Amino acid sequence: MTSPHGGSASPALAAYTRLSLSDADPNKEHRIQLTTEESVREIWRAKDSKHKLAGLFEQNRLWAQQIKALDPNFFSRLLHQQTPDYLWIGCADSRVPANEIVGLEPGQLFVHRNVANCVVHSDLNCLSVMQYAVDVLKVKHIIVCGHYGCGGVKAALLESRVGLVDNWLRHVQDVKRKHAKLLMRIVGETDEETEHKRWERLCELNVIEQVVNVCQTTILVDAWKRGQRVSVHGWIYGLHDGLIVDLNMCVTRKCEIHENEVEGYGDAVHQLSQQQQQQQQQHQRTTEHTTTPVAAATTPTPRDVRSISMHGLDRTHSFQ
Q1: Residues 6+ apart with CB under 8 A from 204
Q2: Which of 274, 286, 283 is nearest to 310 (CA)?
Q3: Is residue 314 annotated as a catalytic residue, yes or no?
Q4: Is the Cβ–Cβ distance between 249 and 208 less than 8 Å?
């Protein structure tokens, strides 16, 4: 008997399997053989898993050595470095490592992550992180950062069934329904392009809505009431180029709520809508200039510009 990885199984287990073949009861023989083979596979899976985990410990040891070689005082300094200026509320996606993409060291960024970077008023986990960051650490900036290509947002957009997380994604589906008219106006050359553009726009709208949710928590309302300086920002990260884009949703003082809208909310959504109209007009002009079927086939369609180009929003954000 061989292992799932091509090697030989344990001699004892192999002998046990051969012994089962001589059993007088054919059915019992088959059951024993299957049970034994499953046991062998399970043992090899466990060994493989243990080997991979051991590799993580080895990588950790090498990492610690490299850090000490570059900066002998790094870890002793880190003991007293829990004074971040920023709270990052982001997606749990493994492709969006908060510290790395903004170039900050451990201790400089307080982080909370969940599926689709949602801020829910009944989520005591997120609220506890926010309260500790604002009241104890005295952070100056809260950053809600989503990302293009978010699987949670796509599941909400298509109303796909994933499992328990479907209940969590109801919050993103609420964003989808709230902005249904804006999303339905997005039409691409193909069904796939239409879906992709709507997906990206919902990623942006979800960030804006979560900024509103942050601003409406008692944590921020109380902080602003007592004069604490803390700003809330809405950003989005591009997996395709590694750059962060400012969505122009920034609240720096006590929220003034008019018809359930945080100040600045309407402008941020309007700019997304305006960008969409500009893209459609550009596409229409390109189509009108097409004179022959050959030209139509070779004329490139306007690229779906992911960075927002109005009012300087195509810049990448700096912590300076």
Answers
A1: 146, 236, 247, 272
A2: 274
A3: no
A4: yes
- Cβ atoms of 116 and 150 within 8 Å: the answer is yes
Count Cβ atoms below 10 Å from residue 213 Cβ, excluding itself. Answer: 20
What pLDDT is recorded for position 80? 82
> DSSP string spanning 30-84?
HHHHHHHHHHHHHHHHHHHHHHHHHHHHHHHHHHHHHHHHH-TTHHHHHTT----
Q: How far apart are CA 106 and CA 203, in angstroms?
A: 27
Whole-angstrom distance, CA of residue 87 vs CA of residue 71: 26
pLDDT along the chain (320 residues), means of 10: 48 42 51 60 70 89 94 90 93 96 94 98 97 97 98 97 96 96 93 96 97 95 95 97 95 64 73 71 63 44 35 35
DSSP β-ladder status, 86-91 and 109-114:
parallel
Longest dimension (CA), the chain: 85
Catalytic site includes residue 23: no
Contact 121, 220 (CB under 8 A): no
What are the strands, taking DSSP E only, across the chain? 86-91, 109-114, 141-147, 231-237, 244-251
Question: Pick the catalytic residue: 18, 30, 95, 315?
Answer: 95
Return the structure tokens found at 279: 């893209």
pTM above 0.85, yes or no: no
Cβ proximity of 143 and 235 under 8 Å: yes
The yes-or-no answer on residue 255 being catalytic is: no
Catalytic residue among 118, 126, 145, 150: 150
Rg of the chain on CA atoms, in Å: 27
Q: The tokens 């989520």 sit on which residue?
A: 123
- Tell me which of 113, 147, 201, 233 is the catalytic residue: 147
